[in-house]
Amino acid sequence: MAVFTKLAIADADGLLFGRAPQPLHTRKGMTIGGGLVYPELNFTLPAIDINAQTMPEILGHYREIITGATTRAVQLEAPGLVVEFETLPPMTQVPQWGIDITKILVDGLEDAHAKHGLKSTLRITPNDTREFERPPHMVSGELWENMLVTFEGCAAAGAELLSIESVGGKELHDDALMMGDMPAVIFSLCIMGARDMKFLWTALDKVATKHNAIAAGDTACGFGNTAMVLAEQKLISRVFAAVVRAVTAVRSLVAYECGAVGPGKDCGYENIFLKAITGFPMAMEGKTAACAHLSPVGNIAAAACDTWSNESVQNIKLLGGMAPTCYLEQLLYDCRLFNRALAGGTADALKLRGWMVDSDAGLDPQAYILSPYCAVEVAQAIVATLPQGYYAAGKAAALRAVALLQEAHAAGRLKLAPREVPLLEAIAMSVEELPTREDAFIAQMMGVVDTSKFVARDYGLA
Amino acid sequence: MSTLASLTEAIKKGNRTEAAKQTKAAVEASLPAQQILDAMTTAMDDVGKRFQCNEIFVPEMLIAARAMKEAMITLEPVLVKAGIKPAFTAVIGTVQGDLHDIGKNLVAMMWKGANFGVVDLGTNVSPEKFVNAVKEHNAQVVGLSALLTTTMPAMKLTVDALRKAGYTSTKVVVGGAPITADFAKDIGADAFAPDAASAVDVVRKLLAA
Predict the structure, then answer these.
(1) Strand-pair partners of A283
(2) DSSP string covering A93-113, please?
(3) Across the interface, do B150 and A134 touch by the CB < 8 Å criterion?
(4) What is the C-alpha separation between A397 and A378, in angstroms, rounded?
(5) In the prediction, which pLDDT does B63 show?
(6) Rounded to whole angstroms, how far apart are CA atoms A154 and A144?
(7) What is the ipTM of this complex?
(8) What is the pLDDT of residues B136-191, one digit of tens each?
(9) Cis link prior to A126 (omega < 30° from 0)?
């Protein structure tokens, strides 16, 4: 297991788009994090039932998507293209469907490479279908086995980057968000989530090694982005969501300890913390992902991206063409701007980064916490406490995030709604009151959480 | 402040202990069970409105709901004895293929707070399971939730299954991020609830019509 004892990027100015201390070299000659930002296109189906009868139509959608995307990438002289195929649940439960679609996408990318020299790589992100059982069985069973078969089959079919949006700990996390319960958030992410990540990514790293593929990374999407969307809908407070984001970094870090090397998955907004810790390249998404979900971090999310993604868009017709093609064009122009700034040298790139950061950071705590300054601060808090365990690191991340938000608000750098301000102190108090020792925390939480929602022994908690 | 007014205030503030205490006092004073229940639903209506006006967040609303739940432990046997039942029963669930349940849980909570009888079927619920639950619980309302575009067709399948099984007057309310009022109309649902807070009024209007 990799051990991260100090930050790979300790200076906030080193957290820059397109540059990673540990760049990733792909089969077709892309170097992610090596001085260019690449577009990463993701897509999904329009409303359609997924079954054996509709599969020919579904395969046709993916053929259309990859043809449109590669054609436009060639026309706009893309320096390279990352395509992400995030399966839909039936495509993981019936692995052959996911594998057949992977083949179509790989063929499309190979064809564009052969005819036009387009450099590309395919990321495969099977669903974590373990949650289809309630309570989920995390370490065994048909769902787990089919998930692994999908990973194996897609990697064998040519998918190069392996990713997942894993769900370990989510059994309790949604309720923790809705109750505004930070101790339960830490229990979900840093006890349950971290333990599952270790199990899951040890297995995925083996799959990657077997197929000469790359264990890319995970995302706490189901945790941090759920919080962000709930805050956007005014269901929970923005400061709570911002602190949750900092804590998610602890959980996602485990993938890199277990062999992942990036690029971390696009919807993991915690990736900026992870880039500071690991030095691996990261995918990010922001304004160009509004097709999938709204966010208050549209510009700032690009500050340290190495691939720039649209998250997901349905394959439907827009005035400009099919939606995935249109969104790829937007990503390509975003990347042209990043890459032009990088070509101008570090000062130019930092100027662009500064505009992106400053345009968002003061308006929302969720944006502010993703600023390079905060990212390094939170990452440092995590690394400093990691030898004591993920629980200690989670607490440290939460408390540092609260302090950073309070300082910024007090200094007039961060706007907060009046009703949000006292919540920061309440969050800090709820964390400070927690036991020092992890075993004491586990004993305390197991007495109050709904243990019927998860299989405790799968997490080593029984 | 009267006992019932105190009960309403205790629930609004999410004070479980006080809510239980005031309920006990109201029952011991032989106040009519329906009045005690009304004091509780008044509190939850107010909480729902404050939430709709962005005055409070969901955690505060859930804490109020928890206080009402605590108070109901004392009131429930009195309601049964008095023959008072919820005005109607609603079956709710996330449709087949979809595991998202935050929105669905919020709607269920709001409906319970409004004193609807609520049967929560969970997530990934097949059309058959919805039909069976409507039959078993004699439900007047069905709430269908979906977050994925690819599970939207399961909503139509569920509506079709209900109608085919003869539940033509059962009101179907749909909601979820990709759902629109037009979609609700297209699939034969009776109403679209854009958010959890409005789901109470949507049902009340449907059943009053």
Answers:
(1) A307
(2) HSHHHHHHHHHHHHHHHHHHH
(3) no
(4) 6
(5) 92
(6) 16
(7) 0.81
(8) 999 999 999 998 888 999 999 999 999 999 999 999 999 998 899 999 999 999 99
(9) no
Hey, is the C-beta of A57 within 8 angstroms of any chain B C-beta? no
Task: Pull the structure tokens for residue A388.
Answer: 């004591």
What pairs with residue B125 in β-bridges?
A: B95
Distance CA A97, CA A78 (A): 30
* pLDDT beneath 50, residues of chain A: none
Instruction: Answer yes or no: is pLDDT of B209 > 70.
Output: no
For residue A135, cis peptide bond before it (omega within 30 degrees of 0): yes
At residue B23, what is the residue type? T
**Cα–Cα distance for residue pair A13/A271, rounded to 1 Å:** 16
pLDDT of residue B148: 85
The token duo for A185 is: 């958030």
Give the bridge partners for A40, in sequence order. A82, A309
Return all residues near A8 (Cβ < 8 A) that are at least 6 apart.
A21, A22, A275, A276, A277, A278, A279, A280
Instruction: Say whether A132 and B102 touch across the interface (CB within 8 A).
Output: no
Under DSSP, the state recorded for A88 is -
- Round to whole Å and give the CA distance between A378 and A401: 7
Q: For residue A179, give the nearest of B62, B122, B153 by CB distance.
A: B62
* Closest CA in chain B for residue A172: B102
Sheet containing B89-94, strands listed edge to edge, beginning at the edge strand earlier in sequence: B117-120, B89-94, B141-145, B171-175, B191-192
Residue type, A62: Y
Q: How many CB atoms lie within 10 A of CB A443?
A: 11
- The C-alpha of A186 sits at a distance from chain B's nearest C-alpha, in angstroms, of 17
Q: Is A233 on the interface with B (CB under 8 A)?
A: yes
Residues in CB range of B161: below 8 A, 6 or more apart: B127, B128, B130, B131
Token pair recorded at residue A188: 């979900």
- CB A402 within 8 Å of CB A243: yes
State the Cα–Cα distance between residues B209 and B207, nearest whole angstrom: 5
A24: part of which helix (H) or strand (E)?
Answer: strand A19-25
Pairwise CB contact (< 8 Å): A178 & B105: yes
Q: How many residues does chain A have?
A: 462
Cβ–Cβ contact B53 with A under 8 A: no
Q: Residue A331: phi, psi to the nearest 5?
A: -60, -40
Count of positions (residues) in chain B: 209
Rounded distance, CA A443 to CA A430, Å?
17
Q: Say whether A150 sits in a helix, a strand or coil.
A: helix
Measured between CB atoms, which of A90, A235, A314 is closest to B58? A235
Query: What span, in angstroms and rounded, lies between the C-alpha atoms of A92 and A453?
Result: 23
CB contacts of A174 in chain B (<8 Å) are 101-102, 105
Between the two ends of chain B, the Cα-to-Cα distance in Å is: 37
pTM, two decimal places: 0.91
Centre a 10 Å sphere on the Cβ of residue A329 and count the other Cβ atoms it contains: 18
Please give the DSSP secondary-structure letter assigned to residue B88. Answer: -
- Residue identified by tokens 């593929």 is A213
pLDDT category at B208 given cuts 50, 70, 90 is confident
- Cβ contact A427:A240 at 8 Å: yes
